[in-house]
Write a structure and sequence with these properties.
The chain is mainly α. The chain has five helices and two strands, in the order H-H-H-H-E-E-H. Strands 1-2 form a two-stranded antiparallel sheet. Helix 2 packs across helix 4 and helix 3 crosses helix 4 (43-55). The N and C termini lie far apart (48 Å).
Length: 104
């Protein structure tokens, strides 16, 4: 099931999750241990944040031996960005209509 835009925004609204996702985007891929070393949070905390990001489709994972490697998934973020652009365009149209009414 695809996460809603609200769920994606909620996931991205947490500063630590944003740092986790940014760290992954910079590295391309990494384990919870590697990500935790780059951030001021524990490995268990990073794992919890990765679970949330995975649930909304912003990261994916693959097992390599005993280690789980996480990587960013741009598709969901791009879909959310497209939706935001659609909303912005709709608001621009509404505001232009209001301006026209106000000036007329």
């Amino acid at each position: 099931m695809l996460a809603t835009d609200t769920e994606v925004f909620s996931a991205l609204g947490d500063a630590t999750r944003w740092q986790v996702l940014t760290t992954l985007a910079e590295r391309g891929e990494g384990s919870a241990t590697v990500i935790a070393r780059a951030l001021p949070v524990s490995r268990p905390a990073v794992l919890k944040h990765l679970q949330v990001l995975d649930r909304v489709g912003l990261v994916g994972s693959r097992k390599v031996g005993r280690e789980v490697l996480y990587s960013p998934r741009s598709e969901r973020l791009e879909a959310t960005a497209r939706r935001m652009a659609e909303l912005a365009a709709a608001w621009d149209t509404r505001l232009a209509s209001l301006k026209k009414l106000a000036e007329g």
